């Protein structure tokens, strides 16, 4: 099978979502071990006007969900941002993994021949093909939130490393 | 043309390297405006045992360079980590953009049918195909360093936003 839009999106995002879940496990264990209120980590931010950890995780999950939905032309389920602890955030990730794993390569790869439109603060932005949407927006946006979640937990002292990010280890 | 390994690697990384260069421009302007020694930003880290900004930028450049080299089977040029200011870091990025833009889609896509091996601290890791290497390692690793560079400069007060990261704006 030739490499496809599906290969560059769903399996990669599923893998990274599992890794993000492992990062949250390590954060929860760190909080328990050090007697830290988990809320302090869930509220942590890299800068005062950036999203906190909860919103970074929710945004990573939403980014994967939107990628599958937009590439397939489906309407994604709504997931309100109500999570307030590590278990709930992991649940949010698990819901999205189940959702995106429900798509077939054929559904996703149909985007190769059509445009994808995303809302912006101004005019909606039109990508000419699913591949343009994936590489110019969806992948960079997804990794932004996964890496920022990693970075802010790393800054909070959680013992995670590059291999946690890359492979959940 | 069908979506390919090339589409999911070289143009996306080139675009993000240009955006990273724009981020450095904004950091340099911020330092000049606020009378901040640029060295304090170049040495900044999210955590004491993480790479500083210079190493994050060098690592992002190296990640793109290695991606093109490994997917094509070429040996990449060596770029020693000697950069100590924003202009030099931008020069490092520019060298890598020129290098990776020198590859044709055919050279990169030949990796679809062969394995890619990367060194690790233990045994070398073998990815069965170029696509596996790209999605399980190269893309996540590249975005890790770009996003971390963004995050630490954002934390240093540089006026950058998601659109700087996504589009250099």
From TrEMBL, chains A, B:
InterPro entries: DinB/YfiT-like, DUF1993. It comes from the Bacteria. This is DUF1993 domain-containing protein.
